[in-house]
Amino acid sequence: MKNILISGASVAGPALAHWLARYGFTTTIVENAPGFRDGGYAVDFRGDAHLTVLRRMGILGEVEQARTGTGAMAYVNRDGKVQASMPADLFAGDVEILRGDLARILHRATRGTTEYVFGDSIASLDEDEDGVTVAFERSAPRRFDLVIGADGLHSNVRRLAFGPEERFVRDLGVHCAVFTVPNHLGLQYTGHVYRTGGQLASVYSARHNTEARAAFYFASPETDVHRRDVAGQQRILTERFAGTGWECDRLLAEMRNAPDFYFDSVGQVRMDTWSRGRVALLGDAAYCPSSLSGMGTGLAMVGAYVLAGELAAARGDHRVAYARYQDVLGEYAAGCQKMGDGVAKLMMPDSRFAVALLNRYYKLLPYLPGKNMAAKIARKTAEGIALPDYAGAATRPTC
Ligand SMILES: Cc1cc2nc3c(=O)[nH]c(=O)nc-3n(C[C@H](O)[C@H](O)[C@H](O)COP(=O)(O)OP(=O)(O)OC[C@H]3O[C@@H](n4cnc5c(N)ncnc54)[C@H](O)[C@@H]3O)c2cc1C
């Protein structure tokens, strides 16, 4: 039986483990966080491809139960006065769920069939004819047949197997931070968005209005703060948003007590090939479309479905399966990446005049003939793949 190591226990990794276990593979997930990671913004699933994958996984019901139910979003000025309202049906997908809730569902669904190793990371990969010897930062070395990097935008496996991040990550010049705050505005299935030149702050209700998420985006060149330096990241956010109006100061004060804190640059991953020998990449690690595309999580879930299905169909022959994985998913991933292009400028115009213009446009949008265009384009992109049916491939792989 093939023995597969997956790096990363967020969305793509556990989704892949789910399918691989169903097809009879043995899976281990190594995650560098010390335990399950909650937190993050709300993610959308839209259209047939996304919903079909969730249904075939048997988790659609659970995902629907945990849906955020967020409705219209209000665009406010620095005094909190509503300038425009964005109806939910303009941009929301079919099901919206907090990333942390989705990750928890996936973790629950796989922990009985997958070995989870938290608090560790791959240190080196040494491939030969029969497999890969993997050295870890903490645990003893082990042998695996295949290794999959599902470890996100700053993938460790990509660096080890393909080369430095700069070769594959296109920085979009924006940083983003998300954390949990009390729902002090009493928001009921809604959110407020406040734009200033080149920056955006927002808060929206979560978990049936019992809490809220604060999300900040700001245009910036790369920062030199380390990815694990939370204090440094919070300092940068404070420097950017303190005294800029609306609820920013209160949200920044609450940031210190938040149970979670996500901070990252917004980027896209562009690679000619997603595999090398016995190693392959999945999700953001391979083809991150950027968080501004609204497509990353759906794409990662579809990617996991296809990669596992092709491995099963090829009875574990990674040469055949990895090539097919890229053939089936390549155009779809490219389409999702297009959605991320250009959104940064549109989302955070850099002058006051442009912000006012955009608010005016949003005010009028519900009455304009093209009001559903953005939602239609997003749906068309999300549905732009004919999902192979791998049900017949659900046999045990050969060695
Ligand atoms: C806690 C958290 C919060 C997030 N919040 C947001 C958000 O608010 N907005 C947004 O745009 N995107 C967010 N994301 C990213 C979003 O989940 C992904 O863009 C998308 O869902 C695709 O998922 P993925 O599994 O491919 O990558 P990711 O969700 O990025 O998951 C990668 C996983 O790999 C782990 N990992 C990283 N390095 C190593 C290593 N060396 N060894 C082992 N494991 C490693 C990470 O801890 C993470 O669990 C968040 C991710 C996480 C982990």
UniProtKB/TrEMBL annotation:
GO MF terms held by the record: FAD binding
Superkingdom, natural source: Bacteria
One Pfam family it belongs to: FAD_binding_3
Domain FAD-binding intervals: 4-315
Name listed for the protein in its UniProt record: Oxidoreductase
